[in-house]
Design goal:
The protein is mainly alpha-helical. The chain is 75% helix and 0% strand. The longest helix is centred in the last third of the chain and has 21 residues, at 54-74. The protein is globular.
């Protein structure tokens, strides 16, 4: 098994904010990505969480796609 597949299965040992707190951080993270801004260190635990949690990862990707689509429609 490759390291990335094993990490996806087991998650990482880094600090993880959990689903409840991740929901609070998701908007800021997505807005930074859309603006092309670097992700600050204070969101590192959120990034770890979406690496470990498939549901939150999918929610983040869905929100990002929706906002990208809205941005494209505005043009």
């Amino acid at each position: 098994m490759t390291d990335s597949r094993l990490e996806k299965l087991l998650g990482t040992a880094d600090a993880d904010v959990g689903c409840d707190h991740a929901g609070e951080m998701m908007d800021e993270y997505v807005e930074l990505l859309l603006a092309g801004e670097p992700v600050p260190e204070r969101l590192a635990e959120f990034v770890t969480h979406i690496t470990n949690c498939t549901a939150c990862h999918e929610d983040t990707e869905s929100l990002l796609s929706l906002l990208r689509e809205e941005k494209t429609d505005e043009r």
